[in-house]
């Protein structure tokens, strides 16, 4: 619970208060805690951190650049009769966004990288999230890993069979992979229903407190 | 200590099949200002609640279906973590929105989709908790419903099945992108040309990657659909 | 106790999966069911626990036919239960504790009693040490033991084990063998396996299946001497029987007995 | 030929999965890799085929380090390939023929050549007779053989077999054993298995893994005599070695040899 609040708190502060300096501090504290205290190597942390930055880069540039008939920009180029450039305000906006994003994402990472799902589930139970939702969370979480492992293995096998050389092969292989996974969903479903029966399942996946 | 290691290990596993390029249209954590984050959550929550209600009536008839929903969730998650080659030479992911809606129905996809988005935020750093509402609306509400309705309408009119599935998945993907651009434009209107100018900018910028991807998604979904029909 | 009487089971397409099966669990403390891939072992197990319903014949519990209504089956499965081969298909929680506690929670047993029973079951299969690890980080052998704990926790009288050692290394196989022997002191066990050495070691009475029929049955020491029977069933002799046949050493039931014999011989 | 030189492989979190591994496939025609669950066998195989990239050391092919660019790997994998344990995950098509043809079609080989090679591969694993059956109607053992054909069809020089007999009944195990021996006449085989009898029978040179390190290596007849080594690696002796140790019979490599010896003794 404490860890949960500790991650969700700063996340809310980052987005709700949205102060440049607070956000910078949140980012450094969270990054420090995740990498040093929770002992996650810095290089790995950095690698995960840059995953969503493609989106950030594209969106930031989009926000940054404006088009106008008159040159109101602090920096611009003229193409035919239009000016394309950056205003002071958009620059300031973007700075705010980047800091907010860093603060928020470091908080979410802290939660994702250091808190086992079970602790999160316990919190959700405490705040009275409906049971069905919690059950689905628990089941989906478990099955994600089953299918990830399978997808990984199938992918390797296809790669060994030259399945990812060129477009045509890749498309065929990915579609086969997805179809195969889906067939395995159905097969698993059948045998799981049997297992559930023998485990005296009565319609609810109960979870302890 | 052990747990941190293991969570990290899971991330490592995910990175093997997760790719160098961004997850197409997930609005990243913290990107939306508070006002918009809250607003989009408020828009999405009713759909989610209706979804849950509908799902639970289905489950009352057959409680075993709960496992099927769980399996479907795991499947959709993995689907969205897969890497597919895209026309631009880099790779991208299928969103699975269309395929999921056709296989499991749109309301189910709303519920599963939002849970999957939550896990994507926590495990993959795709999307985020504060943007869950906005992403949920575009990917788990708008996309699946549009895909599903196109699928139903064309199916009723006896249009060629391969094309039906292609079109449903393709448009479902495009709708997701349009809605996201809309959300971004609302939150970040252009200081000069306002909301419309901003919408134009976002639509143009993301069109470069999204239109080819929508076509890819459509093609892929129709191939998979045919493979499954064969099975 | 459980008896299967002239049971016949057909698939939906009409092919017979099981034909005139008679099994009496009173005949041994640990019963072995052996047969080639596809001989009907799993189908038989599913009939025995009432998941599949026979087309003819019946399964009897304490002298009376079992019923197929939900209420009866729930009670019945507290008496007889099964550990399936593939652990991935019977573990529903990422958390070991919750998974083992699952059947008890379905019976609405109070949490403090659940705790005692879950921990006891985990200890019995040497899985207590990783009870806090998420399931997806367990090795195959560890998952297999958690799956076993998930059935032991119900404390049923009869436990069916489908391929309990498949995919396990020699050390783990030995460990499972010991666990089976330990459980067999309090419960009735039915084991199906392709590992003839395992079956010979832990079982006292054996049923041999071939294409859905019982080709032979008898005490372990007798059945495995019947060369024709094993050959027809596409099976093998355990190696302890092989050396008895080939080298003329006495017939030993366990490796330890052979070992003692070897030492005496050298003296 | 393939050599692994002081290879180290770390997981993302920094724990070593493999440490200072040296393997030389020239040392035998059929090489065995044995070790307990989690000792690193699969990780080693994945390093050998270039799916995983070592942190230190290297894999050498014909004397030069392998490259990890797409083009090189593509050529490399025509020389070395792998059959994984679970056939269910390796068969993607509903049709046996299409499945075996998959790698050849990916290489754009003409259909008439494909036909010849697919049929030859299916015959090699005795799977030709069910080439027109849908995959989901095949038995586990049949699927396993089709999976083998799917790799044999590529005609690579080295084939890695991960647990080729797991889940198979005794008869099918024997059949796979014979197939391995037959393939080994033309190709180099690396087998990993928990079945010590299988390894002892088909392999001439053995590497013993424990916790990511090579604990010992040598000719099959030597390695399996080293009691300490096997114990430390949590493994077992094959039964033919056991009786040699306990009863003092000569050390036989195959059951047939023991059988002949038994007959002579009786005469």
Automatic annotation (TrEMBL), chain A:
Protein name: Cobalt ECF transporter T component CbiQ
InterPro entries according to UniProt: ABC/ECF_trnsptr_transmembrane, Cobalt_transport_CbiQ, ECF_CbiQ
Location (main, coarse): membrane
Membrane topology: Multi-pass membrane protein
Positions in coiled-coil regions: none
Membrane-spanning intervals of the chain: 20-42, 49-77, 97-117
Keywords: Cell membrane, Membrane, Transmembrane, Transmembrane helix
The keyword Transmembrane appears for this protein: yes
Intracellular or extracellular location(s): Cell membrane
TrEMBL record, chains C, D:
Location of this chain's protein in the cell: Cell membrane
Keywords: ATP-binding, Cell membrane, Membrane, Nucleotide-binding, Translocase, Transport
Example of a GO MF term: ATP binding
Membrane topology field: Peripheral membrane protein
Domain named ABC transporter: residues: 2-236
Family that this chain belongs to: Belongs to the ABC transporter superfamily.
Biological role: Probably part of an ABC transporter complex. Responsible for energy coupling to the transport system.
Protein's UniProt name: ABC transporter ATP-binding protein
């Amino acid at each position: 619970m404490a860890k949960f609040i500790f991650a969700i708190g700063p996340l809310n502060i980052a987005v709700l208060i949205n102060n440049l300096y607070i956000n910078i501090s949140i980012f450094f504290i969270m990054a420090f805690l995740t990498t040093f205290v929770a002992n996650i190597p810095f290089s790995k942390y950095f690698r995960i951190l840059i995953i969503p930055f493609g989106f950030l880069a594209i969106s930031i540039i989009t926000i940054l650049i404006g088009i106008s008939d008159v040159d109101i920009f602090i920096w611009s180029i003229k193409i035919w009769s239009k000016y394309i450039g950056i205003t002071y305000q958009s620059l300031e906006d973007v700075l705010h966004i980047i800091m907010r994003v860093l603060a928020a994402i470091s908080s979410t990472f802290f939660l994702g990288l250091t808190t086992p799902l079970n602790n999160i589930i316990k919190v959700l139970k405490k705040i009275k999230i409906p049971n069905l939702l919690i059950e689905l969370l628990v089941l989906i979480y478990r099955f994600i890993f089953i299918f990830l492992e399978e997808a990984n293995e199938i992918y390797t096998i296809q790669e060994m069979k030259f399945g990812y050389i060129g477009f045509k092969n890749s498309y065929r292989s990915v579609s086969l992979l997805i179809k195969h996974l889906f067939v395995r969903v159905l097969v698993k479903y059948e045998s799981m229903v049997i297992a559930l029966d023998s485990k005296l399942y009565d319609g609810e996946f109960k979870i302890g407190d | 200590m052990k747990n941190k290691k293991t969570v990290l290990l899971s991330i490592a596993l995910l990175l093997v099949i997760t790719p160098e390029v961004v997850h197409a249209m997930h609005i990243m954590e913290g990107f939306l200002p508070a006002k918009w984050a809250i607003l989009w959550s408020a828009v999405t929550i009713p759909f989610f609640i209706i979804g849950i209600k509908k799902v639970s009536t289905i489950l009352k008839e057959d409680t075993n279906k709960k496992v099927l929903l769980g399996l479907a969730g795991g499947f959709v998650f993995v689907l969205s973590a897969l890497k597919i080659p895209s026309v631009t030479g880099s790779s991208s992911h299928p969103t699975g929105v269309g395929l999921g809606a056709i296989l499991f129905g749109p309301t189910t996809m709303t519920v599963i989709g939002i849970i999957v988005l939550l896990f994507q935020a926590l495990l993959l750093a795709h999307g985020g908790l504060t943007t869950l509402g906005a992403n949920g609306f575009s990917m788990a509400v708008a996309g699946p419903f549009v895909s599903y309705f196109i699928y139903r309408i064309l199916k009723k009119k006896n249009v060629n099945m391969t094309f039906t599935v292609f079109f449903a998945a393709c448009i479902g993907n495009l709708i997701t992108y349009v809605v996201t651009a809309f959300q971004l434009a609302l939150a970040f209107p252009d200081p000069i040309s306002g909301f419309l100018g901003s919408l134009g900018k976002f639509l143009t910028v993301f069109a470069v990657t999204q239109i080819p991807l929508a076509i890819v998604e459509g093609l892929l979904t129709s191939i998979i659909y045919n493979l499954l029909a064969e099975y | 106790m459980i008896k299967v009487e002239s049971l016949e089971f057909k698939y939906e397409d009409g092919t017979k999966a099981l034909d005139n099966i008679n099994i009496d669990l009173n005949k041994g403390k640990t019963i072995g069911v052996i047969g080639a891939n596809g001989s009907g072992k799993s189908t038989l197990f599913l009939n025995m626990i009432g998941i599949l319903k026979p087309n003819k014949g019946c399964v009897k519990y304490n002298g009376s036919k079992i019923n197929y209504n939900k209420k009866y089956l729930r009670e019945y499965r507290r008496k007889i239960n099964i550990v399936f081969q593939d652990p991935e298909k019977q573990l529903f929680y990422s958390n070991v504790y919750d998974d083992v506690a699952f059947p008890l929670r379905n019976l609405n047993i109070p949490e403090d009693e659940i705790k005692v029973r879950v921990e006891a079951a985990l200890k019995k299969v040497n899985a207590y040490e990783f009870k806090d690890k998420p399931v997806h980080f367990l090795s195959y052998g560890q998952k297999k033991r958690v799956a076993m704990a998930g059935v032991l926790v119900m404390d049923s009288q009869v436990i069916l084990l489908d391929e309990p050692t498949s995919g396990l290394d020699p050390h783990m196989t030995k460990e499972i063998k010991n666990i089976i022997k330990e459980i067999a002191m309090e419960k009735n066990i039915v084991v199906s396996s392709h590992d003839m050495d395992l079956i010979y070691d832990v079982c006292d009475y054996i049923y041999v299946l071939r294409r859905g029929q019982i080709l032979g049955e008898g005490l372990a020491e007798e059945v495995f001497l019947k060369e024709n029977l094993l050959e027809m069933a596409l099976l093998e002799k355990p190696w302890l029987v092989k050396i008895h046949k080939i080298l003329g050493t006495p017939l030993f039931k366990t490796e330890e007995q052979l070992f003692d014999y070897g030492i005496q011989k050298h003296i």
